[in-house]
Amino acid sequence: MSEKITIKEIACRAQTSKTTVSFYLNGRTDKMSEETRQRIAKVIEETNYRPSVAARLLNAKETKLIGVIIGDITNSFANQIVKGIDDIAREKRYQLIVGNSNYILENEEDYVNRMLAMGVDGFIVQPSSKFDQLVDKIKNEGKEVVFIDSQVSMDREKWVKTNNYEAVLEASEMLMEKGYDEYIMITADPSVLSTRKERATGFIDALQLKGKQCITHVVDGDVESEALTEMLNKELKFGTRTLIFVVNCFLLPRVYVALKNYRNLMPHTIGLIGFDNTEWSNFSSPTVTTIVQPAYDEGHQAAKILIDSLEGKHEEAPNQILKCNVNWCESTN
């Protein structure tokens, strides 16, 4: 029966209009009497009516859908971002469509096209550095976009990010006081994301302010721990105090595994610091110092900015920088 019954039949049985039933199905019941709501609800329950989502989207001026494009959905940082977005979206009666781009422009473009075809009202995107090529396409469709974690423009777009540069600079300055002799930075390609550039620059600038330099290794995103072990074996010298800074969340556990035979030297000879990963770094032995981003808050604020703009309220600041904190642990203390 649920496949055949229509809104017209629901309206007839509930003794109301099709428009009123449509308002009920879309959650717009604030001006509807309790009696009318109960009649419609009773008929829907009795008939097991399920509205056609596709038909509703085709006819709706707004779909209450938000397209979310994440760079790498596999890490806990991204999970927390999506959770923050979803909590606000649910509160405001929006639903999410989530895609994982792997920071590849072709994937981002494919998701943008498909989500536009689905009729999303707006986008929240963790972009690659090349996403700026897609911004005009989105805006030409009359859609809003908020960037999260990284951004393609500081002055023209809406975005939420963390103080990556300042957080790395300050933490590095504090660590240099411990008297390390050498510094190693391990990062995936910094040109792919603005956050990687900010973190790498923060580390380099902190060292240069003290007249020091670092050895930088740019590695592939799919590098294995074995390759990192071989690289570190060549760099680490007996008796030389060395600080290792891992720029990327996803690389830190691989570097930690690569340092298996050196962990007994932490923190007195070898120091290790990275980003996030608190789901394991607080329980490892030794525990690992990380700069922690407020990922949930980033998602939360990005959703508030987007929905605020979609609803024409313009009460939220369109650009927001949230503060990281350092979780000092045994790998540096």
TrEMBL record:
Pfam families cross-referenced by the UniProt entry: LacI (PF00356), Peripla_BP_4 (PF13407)
Domain HTH lacI-type: 5-60
InterPro entries: HTH_LacI (IPR000843), Lambda_DNA-bd_dom_sf (IPR010982), Peripla_BP_I (IPR028082), SBP_2_dom (IPR025997)
Origin superkingdom: Bacteria
GO molecular function, one term: DNA binding
UniProt keyword list: DNA-binding, Transcription, Transcription regulation
Protein name (database record): LacI family DNA-binding transcriptional regulator
